[in-house]
Amino acid sequence: GEDVEQSLFLSVREGDSSVINCTYTDSSSTYLYWYKQEPGAGLQLLTYIFSNMDMKQDQRLTVLLNKKDKHLSLRIADTQTGDSAIYFCAESGTDSGAGSYQLTFGKGTKLSVIP
Amino acid sequence: DAGVTQSPTHLIKTRGQQVTLRCSPKSGHDTVSWYQQALGQGPQFIFQYYEEEERQRGNFPDRFSGHQFPNYSSELNVNALLLGDSALYLCASSTGTGFYGYTFGSGTRLTVV
Predict the structure, then answer these.
(1) Each residue's pLDDT tens digit, B2-34
(2) Which residues, numbered 4 to 43 in chain B, qualify as contacts with chain A under a Cβ-Cβ cut-off of 8 Å?
(3) Which of A13, A26, A87, A93 has the fewest CB atoms within 10 Å of its CB?
C-alpha cells in the first residue's frame, strides 16, 4: 500500500531557510501536497505540485520533486516564528474506477523556529 | 466566506455509545471527505461523499458510516465506540476530484472514556 515518510522534528533559527523532506512509495501518485497544522487547528493547504513537474515556487515556499527517487521537499525561505507548526506531506493517486482522490499523509514534521 | 465548519468542537463519550459529527463544506464545494487524526499521527482517510453517495472508503470498519445531504453537508456516525476511536476528526471539502487540494475544517476532538 501507499506510504509517506517524513522526519519528525526540525529546528531552525529565525531568518534561516528550512527544508522539510518527504519520501513516498506510490509510483502512481498524481499530486503531492504540503499542509500546515498549527496547534488546535485543522490543516491549511500550503502548496501542491503535479507529478509531471519538478519544481514549484510560491513566494517564500519552494517545492522540489524528484519523481525517480520519489522524494519531495519543501523549502521555506527566511523562516519566521509564525512558521512554527507541523508540516504534512500528502500524496494522492488515482483510484481506478472510483474516480476519487484520497490523500495519504505522512506523520508530519514539527518545525520549531528559534528567535 | 466561511470555510469548512465542523460541530461540535469537542465531545466526550463513553465506550459503547454512538456519536454523530457534522460538517458544512466551504461554499461552492460539493465533495466531502472525513479523516481521523490520532495524537501524533497524520490524518487517515475514512471515506468520501459526492452526490450524496459514498464514493470511496478507507480501511475503517463498518462502525463508521456517513451521509451527505442535498445541500452538500455531511455527517459522520460512529457506533459502538472504542477507546481507540479517540482522535481528532477532520472534515475536508473540495470541488469534484480535489486536484487542487482540499479545504479542511478545524476538526472535532472526540474523547472516548
Answers:
(1) 799 999 999 999 999 999 999 999 999 999 999
(2) 4, 31, 33, 35, 40-43
(3) A13
